[in-house]
Every structure is written in structure tokens, then in C-alpha cells.
Amino acid sequence: MSDFGIGALQSPPANWQMASLEDRFWSRVVQTPDCWLWIGTANAAGYGSLRHNNVRRQATAVAWFLAFGEYPSKGLWVLHKCDNPRCVRSDHLFLGTPTENMRDMDAKGRARRPVLAGENNPRARLTWADVREIRQRFMAPRHGLRASLAREFGVSAQLIGMISKGQIWRGDSVG
After folding, report:
1. CA 24 – CA 48 distance, rounded (Å)
2. Which residues of 138-175 are buried (b: 16+ CB within 10 A; e: fewer)?
3. Are residues 21 and 86 located together in one domain of the fold?
4. Can you give the residue range of the structural domain that contains 137?
5. Are residues 94 and 152 in the same domain?
6. 32-62 burial, b if ≥16 CB within 10 A, otherwise e?
């Protein structure tokens, strides 16, 4: 395996089907002063992929393999420090869980859409006024109250319980 930093855009090997993973990978990378850009096949979000020996892998996973000698273990993704989906430069990559990826996106302001909570969520069946009333009425619990409130507001008894415990519909608009 050659040093990960070697090779700008290389010509594809003459016998492309028999080419090594490393040759196929580097023939699709252009090194710029900052990021090393994948110019091969990419999905709609710009993340590259590479097929080798009838297996399709993400370009970042192949970059990780070439740099560190192993693919990320199950449950780990290759994430970007530089936030460039086409970047395959090893020192711009790090491993993380899907949850860590979402937190990283949120911290960097890259979330595709804001999380719409409470009545701002277009799928919400309740309003803040409904939630206040449910919580107020739940203060004096009686047998069958969850089911009764659920029928009245057109939601599940489980949702009523979660609202009453403050597990969902949290925020200043309830007070």
C-alpha cells in the first residue's frame, strides 16, 4: 500500500477490471491544497462510491481503509471535519456513530431542515393550548383518564402519558 498522500489524478489502469482497489480509488481523486476531491460516481448528496470486486463502498470508507488498514466497524460511519462530502483526505475524516454525525451536523449548522417541535411540526395533532389543558387535567389523576383524554384529543394514551410526564412537548410555550 502506498502512502495515502501520493497521487493526484492518475490514469485508469489499462485492464480496469483487474486494477487494484488502490489504483481504482486514486484514479478518481484530485488533490487540491485543502481537500482531496472524489470525482467518481456520487449520490445526490455528493458522497462518492466505488465498486470493486462486485462490492460497492463509500469513497470515504475506502479512503479510511487505504489510510488505516481496515474498514470502519459496524455502527460507525466515516465523518468529515471539513464538511465536504466529496473529500477523501484521511486527516479530514473521523469515525462516529449516526447519532454523533447528527450532533456534528447540528453543531455546525448543517442540518438540512430544522427540527420542528410542538405545534410547529406540520404533523402535530395538538396545540400548546391542548398540552396545557392535558397537563392541568392530569394533575388530578383518576382511573381511565389517559384513555379518556386520548379519545377526546384524538391521540394515543401513550402520548398523553408522555405529555403528562414532560417527556415530549417540552418548552416555554407550555408554561
Report:
1. 13
2. beeeeeebbeebbeebebeeebbbebbeeeebeeeeee
3. yes
4. 118-164
5. no
6. eeebbbbebebeeeebbbbebeeeebbbbbb
> CB neighbours (10 Å) of residue 25?
25
Cell numbers for 28, please give them.
478518481
pLDDT of residue 5: 43
Residue with cell 418548552: 171
Is there a single domain that holds both residue 99 and residue 53?
Answer: yes
Maximum alpha-carbon separation in the chain: 79
pLDDT at 97: 94
170: in domain:
no
* DSSP assignment of 105-126: HHHTT--SS----GGGSTT---
pTM: 0.56
The residue type of 145 is L
Domain-located, residue 25:
yes
* Tally of domains in the chain: 2
